[in-house]
Design brief:
Layout (H helix, E strand, L loop, with lengths): L1 E3 L4 E4 L9 E5 L6 H7 L1 H11 L1 E5 L6 H11 L3 E2 L10 E3 L2 E3 L9 E4 L7 E12 L3 E2 L4 E3 H7 L2 H10 L1 E6 L8 H5 L4 H11 L2 E5 L3 E8 L2 E3 L6 E3 L13 H10 L7 E5 L7 H14 E2 L8 E5 L3 E5 L2 E2 L3 E11 L1 H6 L1
Parallel strand pairs: 3-4
Antiparallel strand pairs: 1-2, 2-3, 4-19, 5-22, 6-7, 7-22, 8-20, 9-19, 9-22, 10-21, 11-18, 11-20, 12-14, 12-17, 13-14, 15-16
Helix pairs in contact: 1-3, 4-9
Length: 332
């Protein structure tokens, strides 16, 4: 535990029996979080890299405008939400709501936009209003997830990669217009070509895309290998059993809104999916949100999720610091 006196705050790499996230707690009610971050950027980076996430508590960040000043202190590159896979509302200046998913359902652990060719190094959350009950944001260290997998599983995924197949079906998933933020097919085609995504236009203005991405990455700052993909999150069996069964009864695997395969198009074995679930479950931890909390998640090191909740929970989200493949960087 370290006390820092310029803006009163206490740093706790371990607290309440957990090391994820690290905790920075304000020691005065008027403590200025953007000022604290600017004065301690190296410490923030070190905490984020070691723990995988940092929770800033007691700084009283009350709304989207104040959250945006925190983001300005953290990064010069606060990103818009592109190549979307979930519904969010834009609040202001690249501040969004967290995923707008039914309150009675889980959102599984995932690393933000790991299915893309250009993802945010960090995603940051701000608790504008906690839930009355539930609504935690569970975390899992992706380094631990990778270490828990068998060498044979890791080798196969590293050799083949993950293939993501998406069908943009309004009312079931996001439309292609919402996903790519355009009404123009040519703009979609240009984006997909630059990002290494194959495009297939089907009957009735229906779009199907395929992309193959690595399953394991190295963090660009720490050099650590991490399990960084949506192989489990987008797999149809990750939906509630009755939903998954209903979709498979209505669609073939190639026509599902979201589904994953090995990079060569072969199915991911049921036992491998079970192994992935067990690895995530073993690495999962969580905490209860408090009003005004801000949490920085090191996206390539830590996966995040959402538990069901009751009440009018409102968590804001922002992404920053783009990183990706050479192809993606050249296309930006």
């Amino acid at each position: 535990m370290t006390q820092l006196n310029d803006v009163p705050a206490t740093v706790s790499p371990q607290w309440d029996g957990r090391v994820l996230p690290a905790l920075v707690r304000a020691d005065a009610p008027d403590a200025d979080l953007p000022r604290w971050i600017r004065a301690h950027k190296e410490l923030v980076d070190d905490l984020a890299h070691r723990a995988g996430a940092v929770l800033f508590r007691g700084f009283g960040v009350a709304n989207a405008a104040e959250f945006r000043t925190v983001m300005a202190a953290l990064s010069d590159e606060v990103l818009s939400y592109g190549e979307r896979s979930s519904p969010r509302t834009h609040v202001e200046d690249n501040i969004y709501t967290s995923t707008e998913h039914p309150a009675d359902q889980h959102i599984l652990l995932h690393n933000e936009q790991s299915y893309t060719d250009n993802w945010p190094l960090r995603i940051v959350f701000c608790c504008e209003r906690p839930a009355d009950r539930g609504g935690r944001t569970p975390l899992a260290d992706s380094r631990r997830v990778l270490a828990a997998l068998s060498p044979a599983t890791v080798e196969k995924f590293e050799r083949l990669g993950v293939q993501y197949v998406r069908n943009y079906i309004p009312g079931i998933s996001l439309s292609w217009q919402e996903t790519f933020q355009t009404e123009d097919r040519a703009e979609v085609a240009a984006y997909c070509t630059a990002a290494g995504i194959s495009v297939e236009w089907c009957e009735g203005d229906q779009l199907r895309t395929r992309q193959v991405r690595p399953a394991v990455h190295r963090h660009p700052k720490t050099g650590e290998r991490t399990w960084f993909n949506h192989a489990l999150f987008f797999h149809v069996t990750s939906l509630p059993e009755e939903v998954s069964a209903g979709l498979r009864a209505a669609f073939g695997d190639e026509d599902l809104p979201y589904h994953t395969f090995y990079g060569d198009g072969t199915p991911i074995e049921d036992e491998t999916i079970a192994e992935l679930r067990a690895a995530f479950n073993a690495a999962t931890t969580g905490f209860d949100w408090e009003r005004g909390d801000v949490m920085l998640v090191e996206n390539m090191i830590t996966a995040h999720a959402r538990e069901p909740f009751e009440g009018s929970r409102r968590i804001l989200a922002a992404m920053c610091d783009p990183v990706g493949s050479t192809r993606a960087q050249a296309a930006i």
